[in-house]
Amino acid sequence: MPHSRELPLCGMSGTNDSFVRATAEASWSATPKEQRAYLSLQSLFSKIARFCARLQNALIDLTRSSHPIQSSSPELNEILCRARIRTDVSDHLPTLFAESLSFQPRLIVELGVRGGESTFVFERVARLSSARYVSVDIEDSSQVRQHQPWLFVQRDDVEFAKEFPAWCRQRELPDEIDILFIDTSHFFEHTVQEIEHWFPLLAPCAKVIVHDTNQRRIYFRKDGSMGIGWTNRGVIAALEKYFNRRFNEKEDFVDLVNGWSIRHYANCSGLTILTRVVFKSDGR
Ligand SMILES: C[S@@+](CC[C@H](N)C(=O)[O-])C[C@H]1O[C@@H](n2cnc3c(N)ncnc32)[C@H](O)[C@@H]1O
């Protein structure tokens, strides 16, 4: 039976409660008594939502048959096993693996490590494709993985992007990024900055995988289980700005915009995969 675990919210300033508090403080000028009442209601809603999620997930665990994990790839088996632990990204781990491996990358860059869910996947992709693999997090996440060729950098990712080409040259790393994974603050302005500073470092044929493109207070995974997050359009709005196009992130979609193929999965906080397509000159 799968375990049910909600990772602490991160990529935002502080805990969920402090976020609620900050939101309330920023947007509402009410009397202290009204503010206290509002926060109590928010807190109550939070508790009810968490209780409902636990109940729903327990019912799902009770009623579903446990399928044996089967793949001829030991790496994929490990990932499928890991994906059974419910997190805000668990649904997407096999997709990250398949999408990245099929690209046979030489250089993978991951922005945002936290507990290392995505890191676990990219480590295996890197091993199977003999790729170099760099992760960046503003917090010290160096203990997350032990795979030796993994390079972890504790920096603000936008600042680090400015030095990245020289940093790669010093380490004899490929000078272009084949796979870029973005999963950091989720704030609009920061994501816009990430796009602005990291996209010029991509190889002509590159893949950018962005998590949290459908952030909801309550989100659902493919198995119907619920998770508690926060409502925020920061990441998808930054992609909309880049592509100058409005997206409906609540539904799965495929699109082709300005030479990028875009595939979006709405479940589990949303995952959007951008693949830069290089068309043959004769248009075929
Ligand atoms: C959602 S978590 C990453 C989850 C991870 N990808 C996984 O699958 O487990 C977001 C991470 O982004 C990091 N982060 C937030 N702002 C950042 C910034 N400006 N530069 C680098 N890392 C940042 C946080 O410290 C946090 O560890």
Residue-averaged pLDDT: 87
Sheet with the most strands: spatial strand order: 3-2-1-4-5-10-9-8
Overall tally of structural domains: 2
Which fold name fills CATH's third level, the topology of the largest domain?
Rossmann fold
Strand content: 15-25%
CATH hierarchy, class of the largest domain: Alpha Beta
> Helix proportion of residues, in percent?
25-40%
- Total strands: the figure is 10
Number of helices: 8
- Protein structure class: alpha/beta
Walkthrough of the structure:
It is a single chain. The protein is an alpha/beta fold. It folds into two domains: about 50 residues; about 200 residues, Rossmann fold. The chain has eight helices and ten strands. An eight-stranded mixed sheet has the order 3-2-1-4-5-10-9-8, covered by helices on one side. The protein has a two-stranded antiparallel ribbon with strand order 6-7. Strand 9 and strand 10 form a beta hairpin. The longest helix is centred in the first third of the chain and has 32 residues. The N terminus is likely disordered. Bound molecules: S-adenosylmethionine.
Features:
8-stranded mixed β-sheet; 284 residues; 2 domains; single chain; two-stranded antiparallel sheet; alpha/beta; binds S-adenosylmethionine; 19% strand; 10 strands; Rossmann fold; globular; 39% helix; 8 helices
